[in-house]
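Is iron/sulfur cluster placement plausible here? Inputs below.
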Amino acid sequence: MAIADPSRKLMTDALGRRISYLRISVTDRCDLRCRYCMAERMTFLPKNQVLTLEEIALLADLFIGRGVRKIRLTGGEPLVRRDIIDLVRRIGRHIGQGLDELTLTTNGTRLSDHAHALHDGGIRRINVSLDSLDPDRFAHVTRGGDIRSVFHGLEAAKAAGLAVKINMVALKGVNDDEILPMLHWCDKQGFDLTLIETMPLGETGEDRTDHYLPLTQVAASLRTHYAITQLPQRTGGPARYYAVDGLRARLGLITPMTHNFCADCNRMRMTCEGKIFMCLGHDDHVDLKAALREGGLAAVEPLIDRALRLKPARHDFQIGQDLDPAIRRHMSVTGG
Ligand code: SAM
Ligand code: SF4
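Reply from A.M.:
I modeled the complex. Tokens:
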């Protein structure tokens, strides 16, 4: 069992930040092609370059042993990976035994098949991405997605007892008029809503500068309708949470383009190829796959110490004509 072992070093970076949150991208593949995330034609990794379920589970054990208390499974679309439920069960066994929480971020299209199994595996909260409630607009943003599959998935999640937070990327001129309706809809459904600023990650064939909508603007406009109070809850990332007067739905604002969360960043990311990125906004990484395949877990440990030394003080995102995309990796590779 991978309970944090007091004889082993907890993960602390050069600036003294304790790393306790790991995001694992379990696949780079997806059944949608959201315009801000992927290009229409994507080349995905060959299977042998992707970590097996067993390899991901072993690495998760190791990280829990070194003090990771929260794991989020993401992608790509995690529910398109065939063996995802086995992985959830494997990692879920550690909940209460070193791991506080296992969560998942999904586009929801396959949730109706998996919601109960996710709950059985120990997941209690999921994030579901939904940028519009309008079927045509949803199909436009996702380049062909069918919103009905997401609605079915959300019903299944409710029936399974999963708490749902809707992730909505705020896009100027695309869905900015839907932010208030989305907040009301989430409130009615018993969901929370998190708004995300678009980040310059990977070529998508679209100009993100045109659609960048600073959430400071959105918050100011919401304040003309509601009293909004910041909640003390923090997750060590770029999200701030707010209570909205008169609504049950909590509102999250993810403002990755600002730097003021970097000082208490507690997270690291593992790609489906076993690369560890210490910051979404930097290219520095270490590659665990070859070490694991050639030397087993003992060969991986020194690489983790090297990764900790790579964690930068802050990210480098900037939206600007010359700088887009700031980082060549797609979000679907590093895991959102
Ligand atoms: N496929 C799943 C989904 O869509 O929820 C999980 C992976 S997706 C990469 C995770 C989150 O990243 C989603 O909420 C998505 O909207 C967000 N995302 C993707 N590309 C982004 C970008 N360039 N800027 C901001 N958010 C992005
Ligand atoms: Fe797929 Fe999620 Fe990226 Fe959309 S945001 S293309 S659903 S990985």
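Short version: The chain has a mean pLDDT of 90.
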